[in-house]
């Protein structure tokens, strides 16, 4: 067990190594930005998938939509620059709201972020598998299995620890970015060389009339909302500031700007090429795969792009493995999630958070059968909700700082950001409500309720366990306990247990169950012969059960000795070979299990190890 | 839990009701004979399945083979009459061999009988399902599922107790016998009325020349061996004599003769009709189903026959539920199987034996995918082996009775039986060796080995637990135990536990694990403020594990306090709502689980129940 654990996740790491585990900008970009960067693999496709419902001619609207989304990205990046500078200790929307808005708002942000981290893993892994399946259609029947295995691999890598993750992940991120940019460059060159057939189609009047219909306007909004999935992950850096090398805020902001720039370039480029080559969304072949095919044919570079797309999406899922455990550990520290989530495992990572995330993501993948398109509608609502909350919090923070000069220019920047992201939140929730966003709309308040229930339990617990107003010296004066020893026969095991019992109490009783009178007489005779000063109580069992009469006797005793502890000493012998356990009835185990829940019963197990 | 148990198997029955649970001849015939009687549902088919390998013309050899098997039945019945009279206390081959031959022979018989009981359940259920599927081919995809469900139903019925079983089962047995006899009568009448086409084919010379080839001779022997499955279950009555009403031996013999007579009549009749109507074995439609179709068409009587065939086979499986638990309880009483198998459950039946049988039968059904033909080759070897052993034992018994007159006529009857069944054992093992009998040939010696290993364990145990040569009064002088209390914080739970610990020992130590120096100082300061006269031991955990440092400390203490008991008192608090357990780490449970296996550690759990 332990051997396998070590093989999989490595030797334990000493606590004092904690501070060494910090990230350079380059590594942090790989770790925290791959989510945002990788969304270029599916964001354009999600836009086209909605537009194609209007008609093939409407696909060209993807270009203005992409520009709108890039504008949104710029606004969010500028806002988040203020957030990183103002709140360098990390935690993002959750912490900002906790400090400057209120409990419920911060918990709402926390719930939204948790949902989005889980979706990041599920969507990225499913999209990565889709990239792989575009290149290798023979693997199509194993979509779900592949996705689940990838999540498990990610889990193991992350349980090994954050620095090793960075090393594993830095390289492919940069290869991906480079190869996509090369693909865009080659693509544009190819289009100029004469393949520019699609965008040349003139804008006919009927296209403009599209807006006249409510249905198509709604579909355009849905296309925009789907494209907004490109922005998920932008907040990851602001949550992860403490993981950066000093000066951590400055490094984080620089990293975020680089990320936004790369994201914008790639997203616009891919959307542009999709239109240039006249790509339409297809089942089982991704849009990026089609573009790569147009640019490079089915040669080496095509497979190279597909594989690195899959790798970057795998890294994107990894973003959540960096962010989610940190977020839940903060929420848990506040007492709104199980305390276990605050504990660093023996590799210094929040192991429980990592496992928790993996289990949730695997569940989602199985439920949605590994289909990216089915998962995307759930995405983005939570992200934009938390963007909005974070910016609202920052505005309140600026307004609160009475002593200092209020920086109105900053407030205006963040205010515009807040209003825009607020509107986008509503658009994503409404436009994708039917196709899945309702689940998120339902889940968030349920989670907030659960957070409160957990918090209530911990505060109840604290008050019940507190020594406030108690005198410990009085409390430890406990009257001696009665000891009961259930025995089945007069054997060495029984005598052994009696010896121990006599050493802890003067009030010891042996207890035996008999099925018929003959048995009783025999037991009493044998007991007399022993000549011990311990009474033997015999209990009759008309229905041949051993446990029930014992429990009934103990019940009665509990009643008469109310307020005192009763010790039940259970002799247990341990066999030498594993299969011998089938040769003994496990009454001792059962009895212990049933007594553990009683109020005033101390259950003691005294072992007797057989020599052979 | 208890509610469902009561609903399924009924209220517990008082021990004194044991003697009332006795069977009349009519009910006993239903319980113990359905195995033998029901084999007419498949025995003819198994013969034809082998003969058809020679050629369609060879099918007519089923008639002389059936006569040979009936002769064998007569011989076995006459032999077993002597066995019942000589050994009225039941147990059959196992007990006879134990008393009069030797330990290994009796264990061999026991193993053979156990295997055959399990096969009785598997074969009968699969054959019953086949009868059902012949009439309702829509159920074909659910062959295995249906078979498994039927075994579970049988298990529940038998857990309810033997008398109720008899009531449930008596009625369909008699209906089955009557309907098969009516079918045979109608069939013969129909054949005489002009449909007698098949048997009219003259015996050509080439058929006789079949015997000239070794291959066909071997196949004829295999056909005979397959048909011998008709005799399985004949011994059930001799094992179940004590369940009969007084005079039990006489009643058992009468019942057995009736059973043999009915079995012979039906088996010959069905084999005769199969030839008369020219029936050939088909996949998914049984031979009996084909005959019933020839006689009655697809009308009401056809379905009636199919359903009652299924019911009798269900009862046949039930035979094993009456015999197997009784057999294993006797073997367990001798110390060769787990003692648990000797215990009567709260409905007075050997519940563990019943469950054991069900599990084994379900495993067989799943492994062999519910195919009767795949299971039959394993069958019969064990039965004939035990027949032979039982008769050998009876002969030795007769020869041992020096004082009384030796009844040579009886010895000759039984001797002939023994020689014939011995030969048949070898024929079944050899002729069906490749198609599955080898498994039984391998399993029997393995089981005998296991029996011995179990026996060895129990006798080792007895000698280790014996008080022979020991002075109990000296043994109970045990020096006081050191008590260790692992605590995580200074809370009411901890103080509570310390109070109890002080009441059982003067040597109490509190133990806490710290991750860094600050934690240690804080804990030590708090402890001093308490002002208790108990030392606090602090243990450092560099890798943030709670369990490992605790276990290491206890290891070291175990070394220094060798020979004395160390009590580890584990405070455990119990939450009010089930989901609260996720909010606490289960260190106490884990610690207890890991300490339970240590030699000199008494593990005591002291409960602290939360009020809310």
From TrEMBL, chains A, B:
It holds the Pfam family AA_permease_2. GO terms for molecular function: transmembrane transporter activity. It is found in: Membrane. The keyword Transmembrane helix applies. Keywords: Membrane, Transmembrane, Transmembrane helix. It is a multi-pass membrane protein. It comes from the Bacteria. InterPro entries: AA/rel_permease1, APC_K+_Transporter. GO terms for cellular component: membrane. The chain crosses the membrane at residues 47-76, 107-133, 139-157, 169-189, 209-231, 252-274, 300-327, 348-368, 374-395, 407-430, 436-454. This is Putative amino acid permease.
């Amino acid at each position: 067990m332990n051997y396998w654990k070590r093989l999989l996740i490595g030797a334990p790491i000493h606590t004092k190594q904690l501070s060494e585990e910090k990230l350079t900008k380059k590594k942090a970009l790989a770790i925290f930005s791959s989510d945002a960067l990788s969304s270029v693999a599916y964001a354009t496709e999600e836009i086209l998938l909605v537009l194609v419902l209007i008609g093939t001619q409407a696909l060209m609207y993807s270009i203005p939509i992409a520009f709108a989304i890039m504008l949104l990205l710029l606004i969010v990046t500028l806002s988040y620059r203020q957030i990183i500078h103002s709140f360098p200790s990390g935690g993002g929307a959750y912490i900002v709201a906790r400090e400057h808005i209120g409990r419920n708002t911060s918990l709402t942000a926390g719930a939204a972020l948790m949902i989005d981290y889980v979706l990041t893993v599920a969507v990225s892994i499913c999209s990565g598998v889709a990239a792989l399946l575009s290149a290798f259609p023979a693997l199509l029947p194993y979509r779900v299995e592949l996705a689940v295995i990838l999540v498990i691999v990610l889990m193991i890598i992350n349980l090994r620890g954050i620095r090793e993750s960075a090393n594993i992940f830095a390289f492919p991120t940069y290869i991906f970015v480079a190869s996509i940019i090369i693909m865009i460059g080659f693509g544009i060159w190819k289009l100029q060389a004469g393949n520019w057939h699609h965008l040349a189609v003139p804008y006919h009047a009927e296209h403009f009339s599209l807006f006249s219909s409510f249905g198509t306007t709604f579909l355009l909004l849905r296309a925009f909302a789907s494209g907004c999935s490109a922005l998920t992950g932008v907040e990851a850096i602001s949550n992860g500031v403490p993981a950066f090398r000093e000066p951590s805020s400055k490094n984080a902001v620089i990293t975020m700007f680089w990320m936004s720039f790369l994201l914008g370039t790639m997203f616009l480029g891919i959307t542009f090429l999709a239109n240039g080559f006249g790509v339409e969304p297809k089942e089982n072949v991704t849009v990026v795969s089609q573009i790569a095919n147009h640019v490079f044919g089915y040669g080496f570079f095509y497979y190279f792009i597909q594989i690195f797309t899959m790798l970057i999406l795998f890294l994107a899922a990894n973003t959540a493995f960096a962010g989610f455990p940190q977020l839940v550990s903060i929420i848990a520290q506040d007492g709104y999630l199980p305390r276990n989530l605050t504990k660093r495992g023996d590799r210094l990572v929040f192991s429980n958070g990592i496992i928790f995330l993996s289990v949730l993501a695997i569940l989602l993948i199985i439920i949605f059968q590994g289909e990216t398109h089915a998962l995307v509608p759930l995405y983005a609502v939570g992200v934009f909700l938390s963007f909005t909350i974070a910016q609202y919090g920052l505005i309140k923070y600026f307004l609160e700082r009475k002593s200092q000069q209020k920086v109105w220019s900053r407030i205006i920047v963040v205010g515009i950001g807040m209003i825009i992201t607020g509107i986008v939140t509503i658009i994503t929730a409404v436009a994708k409500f039917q196709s899945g966003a309702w689940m998120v709309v339902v889940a968030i308040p349920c989670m907030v309720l659960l957070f409160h229930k957990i918090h209530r339990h911990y505060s109840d617990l604290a008050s019940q366990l507190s020594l406030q107003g108690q005198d410990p010296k009085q409390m430890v004066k406990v009257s001696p306990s009665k000891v009961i020893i259930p025995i089945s026969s007069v054997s060495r095991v029984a005598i052994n247990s009696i010896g121990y019992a006599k050493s802890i109490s003067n009030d010891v009783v042996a207890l035996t169950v008999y099925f018929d009178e003959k048995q009783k007489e025999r037991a009493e005779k044998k007991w007399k012969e022993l000549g011990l000063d311990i009474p033997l109580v015999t209990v009759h069992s008309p229905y041949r059960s051993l446990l029930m009469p014992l429990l009934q006797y103990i019940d009665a005793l509990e009643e008469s000795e109310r307020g005192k502890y009763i010790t039940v000493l259970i002799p247990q012998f341990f066999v030498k070979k594993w299969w011998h356990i089938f040769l003994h009835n496990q009454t001792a185990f059962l009895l212990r299990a049933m007594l553990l829940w009683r109020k005033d019963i101390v259950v003691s197990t005294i072992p007797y190890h057989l020599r052979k």
